[in-house]
Amino acid sequence: MNESLLEVNHLTKYFPIKKGLFNRTVGQVKAVDGLNFTIFKGETLGLVGESGCGKSTTGRSLLQLLRPTTGEIKYEGRNMVGLPPEELRRLRKDMQMVFQDPYASLNPRMTVGELIAEPLDIHQAASGKERTRRIDELLEIVGLNSRYADRYGHEFSGGQRQRIGIARALALNPKLIVADEPVSALDVSIQSQIINLLQDLQDQFKLTYLFIAHDLSVVKHISSRIGVMYLGGIVELANKRELFAEPLHPYTQALLSAVPSPDPLAKKSRIVLPGDVPSPANPPPGCAFHTRCHACMAVCRTDKPELRDVGGRQVACHLYNQA
Ligand code: SF4
């Protein structure tokens, strides 16, 4: 379980802010700012945080759908950043993405069969009867009838479309799937069906997941470890049980206080954070969370806390520097 599949070192992704007649760069949006984490083989690492915290940019950068500004992304020990396109294409077969919005991610002019076979066609992985057989097989794997191959996306419900998206992601037998908010566009009753399907597929095909979501209760259900992101950085990374039993970072504490408890008698007071999330174009100095943190100290305004080991988990907070 503890064998690394993907290792991320000092990953940053900045987007330039352009202005004026000459389109000059006048600043940077620091969407991802110095991430370090590992995804182990066979696990589901959940990534949570409010919208705009950089979690989707992280997922896309890992798959090189966005070129990182700096840093390393090592897949099975090999740094993918800066690889020539042909080598990158070969590695990318092992990594696929399931997108947030099944409606927007499927081309309305393609049949379901064409959509599922597109990765096979791009990588010339199957043709003729083998291609047809694989489409049928993938539809059945995700719980859809193989007769659906000739139909179009608009004929299906949201849950069925997400199943089609998952079948497409499985076409090339990937090892890693980055699932970016895969259930947030679905009804609650359908969400659990898709989560259960993802868990079954993980067991069946020994998949590793990076599961990105803003909803902690969804992430809790599927993840083995959880990373909490705030303004482009991970503030806490821990085993799911430990994180839910005792969140250490003040931001994690606030996020968890908003998750409804299954026990109606459990007393829980919600921590309401003051103000808004600062702009990633102009993040606060020191700890990025200090403008909203109830425990802020003088050092927090000047020194950025590093993500460091605290009793078996990792936390970026000066409160634990003495530990
Ligand atoms: Fe709060 Fe300081 Fe910890 Fe940041 S480093 S979370 S401001 S206590």
UniProtKB/TrEMBL annotation:
One of the entry's Gene Ontology molecular-function terms is: ATP binding
**Chain ranges of the ABC transporter domain:** 6-256
Q: Which InterPro entries match?
A: AAA+_ATPase (IPR003593), ABC_transp_ATP-bind (IPR050319), ABC_transporter-like_ATP-bd (IPR003439), ABC_transporter-like_CS (IPR017871), Oligopep_ABC_C (IPR013563), P-loop_NTPase (IPR027417)
Q: Which GO terms describe its biological process?
A: peptide transport; transmembrane transport
Keywords, A to Z, come to: ATP-binding, Nucleotide-binding, Transport
Question: What CDD domains does the entry give?
Answer: ABC_NikE_OppD_transporters
Has the keyword Amino-acid biosynthesis been applied to this entry?
no
Any one Pfam family here would be: oligo_HPY
Concerning SUPFAM superfamilies, the annotation shows: P-loop containing nucleoside triphosphate hydrolases (SSF52540)
Which family does the similarity line name?
Belongs to the ABC transporter superfamily.
Name the chain's protein. Oligopeptide transport system ATP-binding protein
* Native species: Paenibacillus algorifonticola
Q: Organism classification, top ranks?
A: Bacteria, Bacillati, Bacillota, Bacilli, Bacillales
